[in-house]
Amino acid sequence: MASHYRILLPIVSLAVLLGATFYMQPRAMSYFGLNLLFNLAVPIALATIAQMMIIMVNDIDLSLGAFVSLVACITATYLNDAPLLGLLMLVALIVTYAVLGAVIHALALPAIVVTLGMSFVWGGLALFILPSPGGTSPNWLRSLMTIKPPIAPMAVVASIVIAAAAHILIIRSRVGTVLRGVGGNARSVERAGWSVIRLKALAYGLAGLFGVLAGMALVGLATSADANIALRYTLISIAGVILGGGEFVGGKISPVGAVIGALTLTLAASFLNFLRLSPDWQIGAQGTILILVLAARLIFRRKGLEV
Amino acid sequence: MNPLSKPWIWSWGAAAIVFFLTLALTSGRGAGELAYAALSFGAFAAIVGLGQMLVITLGPGNVDLSIPASMTLSATLALKVMGSEPGTAFFGLFVALAVGFGTGLANYALIFLLRLPPIIATLAASLIYQSIAIWSNRGLRIKPPPELADFATGRMFGVPNVAWVGIALAVAVWIVLEKSAWGRWLLASGQNLRAARLAGVPVESVRAATYISVATFAGLAGYLLASFSGGAALNMGAEYLLASIAVVVIGGSSIAGGNSNVPGVWGAALFMFLVVSMLNSYGAGAGVRNVLTGIIIIGIVIAASTKRVRL
């Protein structure tokens, strides 16, 4: 029962915000309007899923924004000019993430600090590759991100695909269940005969994979990159996971919720534009929306107790 | 007792090594200037680091992500009320501390009343503080009153005044943690919240006081930094988010809480500055500098953790 409530709140918040946006700007209720509203949702949703993989195993990733920026820089330079080399670099990044997960577990290091240190490393590499903003998106990536599917715009379709894929991977599959078990009780997973170090490496590797996809999607939309392009993703992705009903400990996460959380955060920014709020108060209003939605969790939690 | 068993020795040792590596390049020239600069710039990281240390001591999940925003807001409002007028320094200090106190109280209210995880509560609140700072600042760069600027950039007995403030604060925090009931309560809450509550520790008051302290420290750091650098800027606090967490951990405090380490914070703050200046003087570009800084942070954490396991 509790798991149903977990997903209900993100859906309600998104619906309320969407309703408010349509009320403010009825013309947004169209294919083109939705596309504009959720334009940047795809990379944010992918980054949120990446962060969710880490939170799933009770860790937190403070380097994700710098990592996505680095991927964006590689995508806009090497992947465009020398696709094979670029691809190799991206694969190496994913492997590095998996190794990090294993090292963090093997040496019992605090993930918050290791990822903090890694954020300097990723940021430094990004500056090294692209000292000043520039680069070009590979053409295939550009056309993939601006494709116009029938019925619903690309951002919405892609979000549904991401949510479904992550749901099958984490909630439905055998290994996903064990992965969540690592967050719930790593010792009993270990006793049951699983190698926790491999599972942690897998969780981090998946985070790396989704982080890479987020960086590529971002370049496909932005057409160029810079070393700071996605720094805010670190905090946005954490907020998205929690907004989607996830919790910091216990492997209690919801992939569908996380994607909806990412959409809500994206929509919040668009909504504030429609409100014609003074730019001074835009970020403050985003903070307020975040607090309001999370405060609503209190009500749902009480209801959950009654049921 | 083995001196290596003191966790703070690592950050001081690392700072000393980096200091001498930098001097090796200049064959010893400029040692005084380097130490002076490290003490000046390290002081700001140390002040916010001390606050962050108190919060992290509260136990897993406790961290204040609103430090940069609190610093910026306090500094902006303090400089605004002072308006560069001579003789307003103490009034400005009062305003900065009061603003810090207020943001800390607001953070704790969100955590306690809405039961938000501290990471999210301080993150969301920091967005609001940022907005208030933008709105009140309007891009103006107000200079600090001259006597305050002189104080912030001045020295006493060869040590920068801002470092004296940082040292005094460190001593105060150390006394409170080690000698007062409140400090013991804080450590007890961090080690086991439930056990502390059952033992009669007023854990919620302890948490409230801690979140208010960190924000007040951030207010002080913002006030000093703005006076030191000739005015408040909206991004002035940005680098102190990661720095405040990094100095706590490099300083040897346990990230899991319940164990804090005051001298280590200062050692780590000096170290963080010295690493950057070492890499600068060896001619490393911004990219290489960041990569090496990150690797060094991780290296120290690994070194400190394996040592702890062996002991």
In short:
The complex is a heterodimer of chains A (307) and B (311). Chain A is mainly α and 307 residues long. Chain A is built from 14 helices and no strands.
Attribute tags:
heterodimer, A: 307 residues, mainly alpha, 14 helices, B: 311 residues, ABC transporter involved in vitamin B12 uptake, BtuC, two-stranded antiparallel sheet, 2 strands
Molecular structure report:
The complex is a heterodimer of chains A (307) and B (311). With 307 residues, chain A is mostly helical. Chain A has one domain. Chain A has 14 helices and no strands. Chain A has helices at residues 2-24, 31-37, 41-56, 64-76, 78-81, 83-106, 111-129, 139-145, 154-172, 174-191, 196-222, 233-243, 255-274, 279-306. The longest helix of chain A is centred in the C-terminal third of the chain and has 28 residues, at 279-306. In chain A, 53% of the residues are buried. The model of chain A has no long low-confidence stretch (mean pLDDT 86). By secondary structure, chain B is mainly α. Chain B has one domain: ABC transporter involved in vitamin B12 uptake, BtuC (Orthogonal Bundle), CATH 1.10.3470. Chain B contains 13 helices and two strands; from the N terminus they run ααααααββααααααα. Chain B has helices spanning 8-25, 31-57, 67-82, 89-113, 118-137, 146-153, 161-179, 181-191, 193-198, 203-228, 240-250, 262-281, 286-310, and strands at 155-156, 159-160. Chain B has a two-stranded antiparallel sheet with strand order 1-2. The longest helix of chain B has 27 residues, at 31-57. Classes of the chains: A mainly alpha (307), B mainly alpha (311).
The description of the largest β-sheet of chain B is: 2 strands, antiparallel
Number of domains of chain A: 1
Average pLDDT taken over every residue of chain A: 86
> How many separate helices of chain A?
14
* H-E string of chain A: HHHHHHHHHHHHHH
Fraction of residues in β-strands of chain A: under 5%
Q: What structural category do the secondary elements of chain A indicate?
A: mainly alpha
**Largest two-chain interface:** A-B, 48 and 48 residues
- Uncertain spans of chain A: none
Rg value of chain A: 19 Å
What's the total number of strands of chain B? 2
